[in-house]
Hints:
- The protein contains 2 helices and 30 strands.
- It is mainly beta.
- The protein has one domain: Beta-galactosidase, Chain A, domain 5 (Distorted Sandwich).
- The termini are far apart.
Amino acid sequence: MSSKVSVLICFFILHLWAATSVRGRKIGIYEIKKGDFSVKITNYGARIISVLLPDKHGKIGDVVSGYDAIEEYKNDTRYFGALLGRVVNRIGGAQFTLNGTLYKLIPNEGNNTIHGGPKGFSYVVWKVSKYVQDGPCPCITLTYHSADGEEGFPGDVLASVTFALKDPYKLSVVFRAKALNKATPINLSHHPYWNIGGHNSGDVLSQVVQIFASNITPVDEQLIPTGEIAPVKNTPYDFLKPRKVGSRIDKIDRGYDRNYVLDSNEKMKPVAIVYDKKSGRVMDIKATAPCVHFYTANWVIDVKGKGGYVYQPHSSLSLETQGYPDAVNHPNFPSTIVNPGKTYTHSVLYTFSIKK
Length: 356
């Protein structure tokens, strides 16, 4: 082998390594599996990149939107499958005052901050601290140390997320974050784009959704909460009874993109149920968070995804459980501030079943 060829091979290996690592930490894809139920996760942004399970005919399908290659997630602007933090959703004016100090964040949606800023927790490489691929308790735990001042937020935060498969067809997601040395807002969630008919099965307008919430938090023209809490009764936002996603979507500009305040005071609250008649799949969501943000992929336009399938608006839906959005700027909303030494916890349970 000539020295020239050797140099070329070495260059190719280094290029490949650079493409699959950030600052020396390797980016990988990790599968957790229980029979014919499997979930793939990447530690780049702690993202769910596939959820495979059978339909009523026994055919296995992938029920989340996404890409074929990790490199595409690095260039993603829609947060496909991503963990969202340090603070999910929007912070008005990209600033807040805490204990007398004004903190200016990095705006990444006009003058506002969304999902923690331009990097947030979605575009960093998480450490794999535990990984059990299969067996009775398949799971993976990812951790990330967010430094004081990162994206403008105060204090060091040690965050973790554990994805685990339970019987039968249950996906548990547990977010934790400890404020190490300063009070700071923490409000974690994640952003799977669900189409339980199959990621490439078309739009979700015929799927039936029930959301266990009698109120929403209205927003201004920049989608920043006004501080009000308003009833959904007699509005297109009312999903207290099961309704097709598309039944009244034409009455809303582009589609659904709103935070709902859950009715239950239970620790593990009923959040939503989604049903797809064609596949027979049902997804039931419960969580410890007080709110859920319902989004119908309104800004997913001509996005080339898995297998070359092109995603369009309403090709999927998201149900992001969370604390109250922009709570740092609305004293009437329950606080999302975590004090030094205290740990934030947020659990979500997805239960999948078949309705024939």
